[in-house]
Amino acid sequence: MGRDNMPFSVRVLRRLEAAVQPMRGVVPFNRILFASVFVLGGLAFWLAYDIRFEFDVPQAMADQRLSLALLVASGKLIIFYLLKGHTISWRYVGVKDIPTFIVHAVASSLMIVVLSMLVVGWRIPRGVIVIDFFLTMLFIGGSRLLLRMAREETRRLSKVPQAAPKKRAIVIGAGEAGELMRSHNAATTPIALFDDNRGKIGVRIHGVPVVGVVADVPAFVQSTSVDVAIVAIPSATRAQFNRIYDILKTLDIQTKTLPAFSELIDGISPVQQLRDIDITDLLGRSEIKINTGQVKAFIAGKAVLITGAGGSIGAELCRQVLQRSPARLAIIDRSENGLFHIHRDLLDRAEKDAIEPVLLDVTDKERTMRFFQQFKPDIVFHAAAHKHVPIQERDPVECFRNNVGGSISVASAAHLVGTKNFIMISTDKAVNPTSVMGATKRVCEMYCQAMGATSHTNFVCVRFGNVLASEGSVVPIFMQQIAKGGPVTVTHPDMKRYFMTIPEAVTLVLQASVLGKSGQVLLLDMGSPIRIVDLVHRLIEVSGKRPEDIPIQFIGMRPGEKLFEELLCTQETCIHTAHEKVKVCRLNSNGDSDGAVHRIEACLHDIVSTGDPAFARACLKTLVPEYAYNGDKSG
User: Fold this and answer.
1) Model confidence pLDDT, tens digit, residues 302-331
2) What is the DSSP letter of 460?
3) Which residues contact 239 (CB under 8 A, 6 or more apart)?
4) I want to staple 268 with a disulfide (CB 3.0 to 4.6 A). Which of 226, 263, 495, 594 is the partner?
């Protein structure tokens, strides 16, 4: 057959085949897919006549349909290709692809209208065009959705052992996280949802009804067989999570939760990964919102150095800084084991050449200076310090040498090599200190403030309270004592402390680093203080026991401890910044900052030279007049 004698539709198909031929191996080309579009598109046009004329098509319309069906089907296939419909994998087709199917149906209808206008004597009924629009969208889009659903159901049935029935679960939270029921690997079958938004009651999410508010859970559990309760609110505040937990702990069922919001954001845990509720859920679940663009711009492309990288705060700083794409990251610690573990952890997150582990004691001023000259950091986070109050009370000389001497060494090196930003990690124990550790950290703040008054380096201190589950903190100690059946040793029944989770604290440190101006001490909002006794009771509960099952023994306050930690020094007031959880501690009087650097350095020299604990405390009192030594006799 000659080219001129070929039917128009055949010529169109051959041109289409020639057009897509070069794309083989580049764009997926599935003959079955194109054939299905051709057949379904033609079938939609054919059935549109039957529906329009109630399956009694007049002869003239039947002749028209027969003449145009192949042409219309070919046109729909061309439109499908031009809209790249073949690049949408039917395995993953979803709601987001519906606009493409609608555009395809609209374009097909417009094509039919044009054909009706161009072919003399063939006026296609408007009803046929409208019906064809809906059938085209239904056949081409709906068929692909059905294929995906069939595939997923087949995979689910093939993977789930019939002999292992799933646990019946209720889900607290009918938001997006509540869609965890879509995980085919989950070991639970959700039977009901609960949400405090009463407007959702009666709504079904993937077939599971929202049956009430959280307060209705106990009654539902009593009347229905339930194995596990899942708290699916990753961004719940501390108060919200505690209220939910107080309701669930009275029920004789398992309780699970999703990862915290920060874990989901950082990709640490997938939304389907359930775990037991722990103390960080009850004391720290609040979502910390920061200006992520600001923080990213502060770190991205910079050479960043972190001291004390093997510690709890230092290690988390390393992880969060690495997420913001620094050009290079130097991690410094004098503990070989600590440095080894954090370096190994970071290697799973970044290129090997981007991370430089350095085994270095920052009190060695000469070695510290040489490394700074070699690395030339743009940003320094100084987290290295002794932190255990009772131990430092026994050796104030070493505490001063390490905390103050290390800070002087790192700060002076940063100043001399032209580091742009220096951020020192401080503590609320530096406020009106009663301990050697707190007093030395206050001296470090004063040194950085004095350096910030004259240096081109931007010196900022960030002050916050205790962090949950940090190395050597009370929580792991309490958990060990609870595991042994007690007693849990608490110093005083009225003792209170501020607590944050490590990720919360470090996230806010990064935000404060951006907001702080040279010489400022910034204070992180740590919420309300928590009684240590209440903390112990919560730990006992999350361990699966009752508070009355584990005895608590009060052993008396240790040297250097305070009943209540304070947030501001005697002469400080608090002013707000652009972030609601970061504040500036401002001195009410100007004070005399001249010579502060020299005085602190001279005290360091004299204390180390004499090695006398009493002299060290006397020097601390001179430098920090508000330091109130509480009469330890051990030094």
Assistant:
1) 999 999 999 999 999 999 999 999 999 999
2) E
3) none
4) 263
